[in-house]
Amino acid sequence: MRLLRSALLASLILATTLPAFAVVAVPPGNRSKQQPTIDMSSIKRAGETKESFEAKYRRIYSLLQRDKGLMRSIKRAAATYGVDPVHLVGAIVGEHTYNVGGLDSAQAYYVKALAYLGTKDLSFGYQGESVADFVARPQFSECDGLSSAYDLWTCREDVWDKEFRGRKVDGKSFPRDRFSKVFFQPLFAGQTFGLGQINPLTALTVTDIVHRKSGLPLLNAEQAPQLYQAIMDPNMSLDYMAAIIRLSIDVYRDTAGVDISNNPGITSTLYNVGDVKVRARALAADRKRNKNALPQENYYGWLVNDRIDELRKLL
Questions:
Q1: Mind listing the pLDDT tens digit for each residue in 258-296?
Q2: N or C: which end of the chain has fewer CB within 10 A?
Q3: Which domain holds residue 288?
């Protein structure tokens, strides 16, 4: 009887977590014939460096082509998380084409990682309140007990949006801006870092996955230097990249019933825009109305799919 109850409970859990339709594979390639409109922030960055997107693409492609050690590390990280390494290549190429300036050597990231680790006064917070103290406020009690790092920090982002963003709470005014930008940007260098241009908050959402799969130490929001080292050092950041991509694939499969593992343009799009679970839920709702609805690549993912044959030559 106990075994029967356990089986019934397991069936109920599966029924509430898995989509109510068969998983459909998203075919390779772009759905849009023309590249979608490029974000103005990317256009502005390209204008500041006076370098075309094509020139930036060629620069990062050449780096990957000549750095055999880096390519071996990319393949290792991809194998650890069970993803095609072209997904990591696509994300790196997309970031360095649209979201960051030119890079001549991956060695620069190793040097920067050591510099961040040595910055003792680096911390995450807002106006003297650490992020650890902030999420200990009673408004975040609904997040207590969540087991996965992704669910925990996603819940905290939701509470921020509902209770604090653009509001005055307990006599303190909070900006109308993203949680990650307000509490996880103690440096003037930007919001994303390293070869994979990872946001510190995004790294926290997959730290348990990386710890379990790669054996790297669990990251802590109260230890900013160590967190920055993890996302700056390619020896570690590639594991975080692979974990982020693996999470996207799993969430889209389990939430929306679509398998995006064979479309690097879609995984690259999600790597670029984030909010994976929100977008997967929106797609699931679309698919209830239209069973043929599939995820759509943005300008960043479109480039990856458009150059996929060339990117695969790197592997």
A1: 999 999 999 999 999 999 999 999 999 999 999 999 999
A2: N
A3: 22-124+184-313
Q: Which residues of the chain have pLDDT under 50?
A: 1-18, 188-189
Spatial separation of the C-alpha atoms in residues 146 and 176, rounded to whole Å: 26
Q: Is residue 177 part of a domain?
A: no
Asked whether residue 165 is assigned to any structural domain, the reply reads: no
* pLDDT score of 17: 46
Q: What is the CATH number of the domain that holds 108?
A: 1.10.530
The count of domains in the chain is: 1
Q: Is residue 190 a part of any domain in this protein?
A: yes
Positive/negative CA dihedral, 274, 278, 281, 287: negative
